[in-house]
Design brief:
- The chain is built from 9 helices and no strands.
- The protein is mostly helical.
- The protein is elongated.
- The N terminus is likely disordered.
- Pfam families: Sigma70_r2 (PF04542), Sigma70_r4 (PF04545).
- It comes from Erythrobacter neustonensis.
- Belongs to the sigma-70 factor family. ECF subfamily.
- InterPro entries: RNA_pol_sigma-70-like, RNA_pol_sigma-70_dom, RNA_pol_sigma70_r2, RNA_pol_sigma70_r4, RNA_pol_sigma_r2, RNA_pol_sigma_r3/r4-like, WH-like_DNA-bd_sf.
């Protein structure tokens, strides 16, 4: 099942679009917001094409310098901000390849244009972060005993037998506590997805 955009990812996308609009209007502080929101992904793109961290950093600097001058060219009706910026970064890296001055390790220029970006999209990273936060929120809604046992079993690697021994209860009781806790956790997560 494909992850559907969450309110958090929608908010991040809208915030990036708003920052791009402010940047196009000459708001210098918006460039910093765009940089913070996109630098990791864009660096990954330039590094994958250029194959050298220094070259990738130089290309990334070109991206943001050119963005400052050309932000008004972004059209939110044609592409998401991150897709437009990713294409912009890829083009800057390819331009550096074409100069012939790039260090060894870069991909051939004819392979750079269709190079797939294997990193998750920024909005998917936000979805993952939101899902993780929701899991911890739902865990926090469980009673302290059940929460502690589930955390110990799934995050700390304790076996059910170890947990039963530590709690001085039969193994079957521990399994029942955890099973019921997981059922409540699942119900909480399903309710949050439906909201």
């Amino acid at each position: 099942m494909a992850a559907r955009p969450s309110p958090a990812s929608d908010h991040a996308r809208a915030a990036l679009q708003e920052a791009m609009a402010r940047l196009a209007a000459g708001d210098q502080s918006a460039l910093e917001e765009v940089y913070r929101a996109t630098r990791v992904k864009l660096y990954g793109i330039t590094l994958r094409i250029l194959g050298d961290p220094k070259e990738a950093e130089d290309a990334l600097q070109d991206v943001y310098v050119n963005l400052w001058q050309r932000a008004d060219r972004y059209d939110p009706t044609r592409a998401s901000p991150i897709a437009w910026l990713a294409a912009f970064a890829r083009n800057r890296a390819i331009d550096r390849l074409r100069t012939g001055k790039v260090r060894q390790g870069a991909v051939p220029v004819e392979e750079a244009a269709p190079l797939a970006d294997e990193n998750p999209l920024a909005d998917m990273l936000l979805v993952d972060a939101e899902q993780t936060a929701q899991i911890h929120k739902c865990l926090g809604a469980l009673d302290a005993r059940t929460q502690g046992h589930i955390r110990a079993a799934f995050f700390e690697g304790y076996t059910y037998a170890q947990l039963a021994e530590n709690a001085d209860v039969p193994l079957g009781t521990m399994k029942s506590w955890i099973r019921r806790g997981l059922q409540r956790l699942r119900a909480c997560l399903e309710a949050s997805e439906a909201a």
